[in-house]
Amino acid sequence: MKVLVLGGAGYIGSHTVYELIDNGHKVVIVDNLETGHLEAVHPKAVFYKGDVRDRSFLNQVFQDEKVDAVIHFAANSLVGESMINPLKYYDNNVCGAKVLLEAMVANGVDKIVFSSTAATYGEPERIPILETDKTEPTNTYGETKLAMEKMFKWTSKAHHLRYVSLRYFNACGAHVSGQIGEAHSPETHLIPLILQVPMGKRSHISIFGDDYDTKDGTCVRDYIHVTDLASAHIKAVEYLMDGKESSIFNLGNGVGFTVKEVIDVARKVTGDEIRAEIAPKRAGDPAKLIASSEKARTVLGWEPKYTDIESIVESAWNWHKNHPNGFERN
Ligand code: UFG
């Protein structure tokens, strides 16, 4: 099949492109390179630099490339930034999705898989979290992703389009080839920040709060390898190609680790003492987020391969130690 990947130069997008091409599919990438990297674009993919909000550009791409389905990653995804600049998130995420849907409807493309997030749930009612649980985001980022889900839902009813929304928990790790990995600027995610300590890029890791109601007082998260996320996207496109109905799936390992446990794993993997300091809580951080991914397993037949946290941190370390400046020339 031929798939249009919007945001295919970003972290999860580039890993999904690698997986698609490894599985023999044709890929067209659209990315504005605002947060994505040209170096992360797979050499066998067709690449267009452009913005998802640019209607005439998108129409041209759909006319030139007859694609079977779309995978949509092109969005802003920083929780903190979304609270300071909410309209940036409404513009790129919500308005971007609107323009994309208009172009899909106009060009008769009727299948889309897109990135959603655990942030759509807000403070969970129970653990593990099911797709049917209450969605009450505590930040603008999660709110815009929920708005996108609703836009897909109502548009699908009116225009016979089908969608799969994938709610990721904590994406981490890097491609086995060592060619691509996580490279955000600024970096805000726990695992890459911890690994900056053994790389000599920061003196210590700050632990945001140690009096949460968890086993050691630090936040619990469900860490899922980016290649496992990538394989779920392929399963989701195949599911839509089989004519199945629109749906929403959580993607996580179903196991939670505290911040302190992740730091301990990183100490073991890197052999570095990794100094840690307790710092104030970060606003809006739920104490515990763990996915139930039963639905993705049973309906999509998805099976994560990186099920232990050590192999996940090892794969991240393999990328970061060889690319201390991400995709910039070292
Ligand atoms: N943390 C620290 N110190 C740091 C960075 C993070 O203690 O320097 C803690 C956070 O407080 C949190 C955990 O490590 O408890 C993980 O933090 P990340 O920033 O790596 O990830 P989040 O869980 O905050 O965010 C992830 C995704 C978001 C998504 C969110 C859903 O990255 O896109 O889950 O809640 F919105």
Automatic annotation (TrEMBL):
GO MF annotation terms: UDP-glucose 4-epimerase activity
Substrates-to-products reaction catalysed: UDP-alpha-D-glucose = UDP-alpha-D-galactose
Enzyme class, spelled out: isomerase
Pathway in which the depicted protein is active: Carbohydrate metabolism; galactose metabolism
Enzyme Commission number, as recorded: 5.1.3.2
UniProt-listed InterPro entries: Epimerase_deHydtase, NAD(P)-bd_dom_sf, UDP_G4E
Superkingdom of origin organism: Bacteria
Cofactor(s) recorded in Swiss-Prot or TrEMBL: NAD(+)
Limits of the NAD-dependent epimerase/dehydratase domain: 3-252
GO biological process: galactose catabolic process via UDP-galactose, Leloir pathway
Record key words, sorted: Carbohydrate metabolism, Galactose metabolism, Isomerase, NAD
SUPFAM superfamilies, alphabetized: NAD(P)-binding Rossmann-fold domains
Family: Belongs to the NAD(P)-dependent epimerase/dehydratase family.
Alphabetical list of PANTHER family matching this protein: UDP-ARABINOSE 4-EPIMERASE 1, UDP-GLUCOSE 4-EPIMERASE
Assembly notes: Homodimer.
Protein name: UDP-glucose 4-epimerase
Organism expressing this protein natively: [Clostridium] polysaccharolyticum
